[in-house]
Amino acid sequence: MAMKEKLIDALNKQLNKELYSAYLYQSMAAYFVSKNLEGFANWMDAQVQEEMLHARKMYDFILDRGGKVKLLPIDEPKHDWSNAFEVYKDALEHEEFVTDSINKLVDLSIEENDHAMDNFLQWFVTEQVEEEKTTGDIKNKLELIGDNVQALLALDEKLGTRQAVSSTDPQGQQ
Fold first, then answer.
1. Please, how many CA atoms are within 13 Å of residue 56, restricted to the half-sphere of its CB?
2. Whole-angstrom distance, CA of residue 11 vs CA of residue 118
């Protein structure tokens, strides 16, 4: 059964949000590179790759269901922050925005009685719990660190160990 246009349009808008997320995190990575915080930049670069995988999942689902992918313009992201805490504060607010958007998509899939879309979106619901927790944890650590440069550099080193997710998994799972 083909998806309703209302659902395809909503999924295309979410695809745009996923691509914007990658764009935003790339801007954050560039900010960290400019501040010589390579570990933070690495964490953000891994986040970019993860967001691109999320976008690809959305893209593939639209096509698999017989919909037409419409790539919409991507807004210019913020590109300057006062410190690492502000970056992660913005990142957490963005993840909360994405969570709200995913939840509204779930509501729409239920309203339109599209069980396949609802099932598909449950992966994103679970993923957003992880996204908010991870980003929130770093933001909270940065709040505790305050102006302590040694602690900031220690966290930078730790974040430098994050590995990007592999796109080789046929299910795109993480």
1. 13
2. 12
Maximum Cα interatomic distance, the chain, rounded to a whole number of Å: 58
- The yes or no reply on domain 5-68+79-159 and CATH 2.130.10.10 is no
Instruction: Please list the alpha-helical segments (H only) found in the chain.
Output: 5-34, 38-64, 84-111, 115-145, 149-159
C-alpha 40/C-alpha 130 separation (Å) is 18
Identify whether the C-beta of residue 89 lies closer than 8 Å to the C-beta of residue 36.
Answer: no
pLDDT tens digits for 74-97? 999 999 999 999 999 999 999 999
Domain boundaries defined on the chain: 5-68+79-159
In whole angstroms, give the CA distance from residue 141 to residue 100: 24
* Annotated binding-site residue? 51: yes
14, amino acid identity: Q
Residue 128 assigned to a binding site: yes
pLDDT tens for 9-54 read: 999 999 999 999 999 999 999 999 999 999 999 999 999 999 999 9
Backbone angles phi, psi at 167, to 5 degrees: -90, 10
- Is residue 95 part of an annotated ligand binding site? yes
Provide the whole-model pTM. 0.92
* 86 annotated as ligand-binding: no
Q: Is 50 annotated as a binding residue?
A: no
